[in-house]
Amino acid sequence: MRRYPALWFTWACLLLAAGDGLAAAPAPIVTNKLRFRIPFRTDPAALQRMNARELQLFVSPNRGATWALAQTITPQAARFEYQAAGDGEYWFAVRTIDGFGQPHPAGEQLEPGLIVVVDTVPPQLELQLQPVGPGRVQLSWLARDAALDPATLRLEYRQPGTADWQPVSVLPKSSGQTSWSVPQGGLVAVRGSIADLAGNQGMQQAQASILPGDPLLPRPSGSSVREPIAEADPFSPEAPLLPPRASSAKPVINPGPAAEPKTAMMPQFISGNLASRPEITQDRWTTDEPVTGSAAAAASSSLGRQRIINTRRFQLNYKVDDVGPSGIGSVELYITPDNGRQWYRYGEDADRTSPFDVEVPQDGEYGFAVRVRSGAGLALDPPLPGEPPAIRVTVDQSAPKLELLPVQQGQGTEMNQLVIRWRTSDAHPAEKPISLYYAPTLEGPWELISGWRADTGSFTWTVGPGAPPQFYVRVMARDAAGNISQVDTPQPLLVDLTRPSARIVDVEVKPVPSPH
């Protein structure tokens, strides 16, 4: 739907000559006004040919089940005016009456040229603010509306130590939660607003009293860190996260002074169980689905910091280093959708044991970083704006675009040569993306012509004597994430390699007539 907060709608419809109908149902326009004007433009030549006498506006409040005449105007008028009875979806159609009183288009069936959704009800926004321990507060929000515009979400907070309202940095979603520290304690207030596609705005406020935090817990010192940083809801509740895998391994605590747990990045795929927790190398990860093709080849590298996969669900495996006697207090995952320009708190690993289950909402490139807090409350600062991610994961679930061009067959002595041609494109192509097959029927069995090879656009195949006289050809294309497309020839190809031969089997003498 399109948002159209203004009162006017320009109906760019052409009133056609007899026999022509209006266009198919257009995209709805959403407004929060019950009364609106509908300007239109006409085809003057068409109106003159039919000697148009009047224009009729019909409206249907039930998606075309019934139509009613709403207004009649002369062709010289510039617009229709309509007063809606209430909220709902209204279909509009125009009929032209010619000089003989005949309607255009004729017949009882009308097709909408304009659809307007009237929505005067603001969205419902619920805010819940509650303490989650001394010096820490959690905000949850939920917005409801049939035509909600999540991009308009705005959340702000005010707490002791801040004179003005400060923005809560979250990914705009219909629901979610985030938390942040309030070292001084005191009264924390939040306010929020969100709009729908019609421009209606819903607002809400909430507040909570927070106990002062432990003075031993350090506050992030980076001047560019703006609290709060968004938590798990950038990717829920549409697709709930998988629970962390159970593990019997426990943190190993070595005697020594309290220290900040350290993390170092060596992203790679793993297939076995992690041992000796918590030494940590962050962001080694596996997917819930098998990795095939060149993605599997990429998995064998332990030095790369970027991976391409074809599933929205995957796991980040991590390993904690330098654990003091206080142990591990929490393991937090941060996510960036824009290569570190903005960071959001994705969530906390409940069992503080690798792996960290992750689910992202859609295809795209995501960066990740892990922060570990000791049992004494010491931790590295959250990633700052501009800080690059430790690992980048590109989620690509789109198969390559593939087109099989007509197969060309050689002539004469090259009749057994077929030139197979194709066109393919993909945002993340594999190094060797193309393979070729043939089969006597579309049901198979499919035999290999050429294994995965470079995308050269064509391949010349010399058909051997063992091939069937007619067969189908299949081209398959894959990308770096393991997505595969395939296209078959619509009709079987006839390749007759039989060379007809002849031999003399007898001599026949034709009788010569006698001269007598």
UniProtKB/TrEMBL annotation:
> Keyword set for this entry?
Signal
Its signal peptide is: 1-23
The answer on whether this UniProt entry bears the keyword Signal reads: yes
Please identify the protein, giving its name as recorded: Ser-Thr-rich glycosyl-phosphatidyl-inositol-anchored membrane family protein
